[in-house]
Description:
The chain is an alpha+beta fold and about 425 residues long. Helix content is about 40%, strand content about 25%. It starts with 14 loop residues before the first helix and ends with a helix.
Amino acid sequence: xxxxxxxxxxxxxxxxxxxxxxxxxxxxxxxxxxxxxxxxxxxxxxxxxxxxxxxxxxxxxxxxxxxxxxxxxxxxxxxxxxxxxxxxxxxxxxxxxxxxxxxxxxxxxxxxxxxxxxxxxxxxxxxxxxxxxxxxxxxxxxxxxxxxxxxxxxxxxxxxxxxxxxxxxxxxxxxxxxxxxxxxxxxxxxxxxxxxxxxxxxxxxxxxxxxxxxxxxxxxxxxxxxxxxxxxxxxxxxxxxxxxxxxxxxxxxxxxxxxxxxxxxxxxxxxxxxxxxxxxxxxxxxxxxxxxxxxxxxxxxxxxxxxxxxxxxxxxxxxxxxxxxxxxxxxxxxxxxxxxxxxxxxxxxxxxxxxxxxxxxxxxxxxxxxxxxxxxxxxxxxxxxxxxxxxxxxxxxxxxxxxxxxxxxxxxxxxxx
Length: 417
């Protein structure tokens, strides 16, 4: 039978790798819970306007990358390209609009119609957090510090944190005027995307990764001095708090992040093992307008890509988490032995012991090979002779020693071992 590969930009996750995924998720749940975050699960698709209104209609995600389709009633639905908008939509059904702080974390698949490349898939997976309902510099700093602690907990040392401020809406017009005047002088030397961004969304020029554009961007004027004193003070307080918390960072005015909803603090995390162009995490403070809401909801959060975290761990040669091996493998020769082993296995599993066993008629050698593949610490062997004597043979796979155990004593013997 011909093998079928998964669609481009997607991948299967087999048991040998799934343990590392589970480790990242479980560690996130533990650390985020320590900070007062609870798990939230949202649908993998939403009404399209949730993302159009939440992310901004001019963002490249909305313009180029969303998977959108109609349901039977003609409503436009979109597979979630990121987690924040769906989380915020869900939280509007709580009392968060009244200023009650909500702290949630999530993990799951996201979907973007991008060109597949290393660390970038069309179905990718994120672990993220959102702290919604209140706005303060120290909340931003705590969120970044939590991400720093999480990366260390999963064995990723040496991550580089870059931060910046987007100010608030009132800061944008004077800053954009300065940037537009500068880039207009160089736009003929820049890529086609940047030429479009000059009129549509000038902030996205600062996010361009083209080498030639990067040289021009490096000479852009410091627009932060055109932000209000309040916005600048907010950013200074974030930086001071991060320094106090021992989180290393670099401030870079060229960091803007790709979505329109950001205000004040934005941040991105890269790692030298993946190069400076591939972010392993990012986020910031935002304000989101959602369908039916007249006032934006404030929040701060981040998302980190599971596939990219795994790439960094592999590059750093972080040992994979230990996987549970079979405590015991039950070998049965003959129908009655296999049936007795099935009953024993059920009893042992209920007691929390991992058990593998053979349930088909196979030779003794074949079953022993299976026990070795499972890395079983012990094997239990029963054939017709052992069934007649009401015993079983327990073999220690490490040293080859073995002993006979009465059938009525098997459960207690194995549990004690």
